[in-house]
Please model this.
Amino acid sequence: MLVASLVPSATEMLFALGLGDSVAGVTHECDYPPGAEALPHLTRSVIPEGLPAAEIDRAVRERTASGESLYELDEDALEELGVDLIVTQAVCEVCAVSFEDVRAIAERLPTQPRVLSLDPSTLGEVLADVPRLAQATGVVQEGERLIAEAAERIEAVETAVAGAARPRVAALEWLDPVYVGGHWVPQMIEMAGGTDVLGFPGEKSRTVEWAEVEAARPEVVVSMPCGLYAEEAAAETMRHRERLATLEARVVAVDAAAYFSRPGPRLVDGVELLGHLLHPDLVPAPDSRRSIELDPAAAPA
Model:
């Protein structure tokens, strides 16, 4: 079976299931695990690179409001690969090619590939997608193994932080404008021994006024700009240092692209990372730790 993955989280899941050799094509954003980025790219973004955060948000809003896609799919390249299965998503219009576009293109392809859409809103639904994908690709036992391992690791964090004081946490998914993390992020904070003071489990990320962030009185701000890695997140966060300094909270920039933005296997790493950040005496630092402590009150270098 040959598979086209049109969302990075699905690419990660396919490789985690041992199906790397079956993945024929991926998106331009698929950069994990190592080697995935070398596969044929089937998509490209229509949003210019290098825009400031506010302009990215504006461009995304304008295109989605007018019904225009943020990504283009290379139909000719997809046809040439001759895939049997296309894995995509419809949960977030700014994260992948339009589901309707994918389905329409699939119907035109000679191989008539099946289209599987993974659309989780909670961590439980993310994990439930593992056996769905495993079933569709004929590796049921690998799916069971991956789920059991994920459940064991999450339970270990929850057990470690049980009974500990729960710090008030604000998860910021974008900073200009301010977006509060939703979907699975509030659950991850809860599992890691914190209390999300702004996000709602299973609900979409939402924009808030800065006054609402201040009123929530977070003790810890986890900056996780969607799609950015730790160093990029830290740089973007410190552009708003004056505003963040007023909170008098601990501020940490994390590797959102790896452990929070993508609904794939590495969300478990994100739970472990949060557990360590919130309770370093109870949860050891994960091997893959990717976070940067920031001091917004410090003078710029």
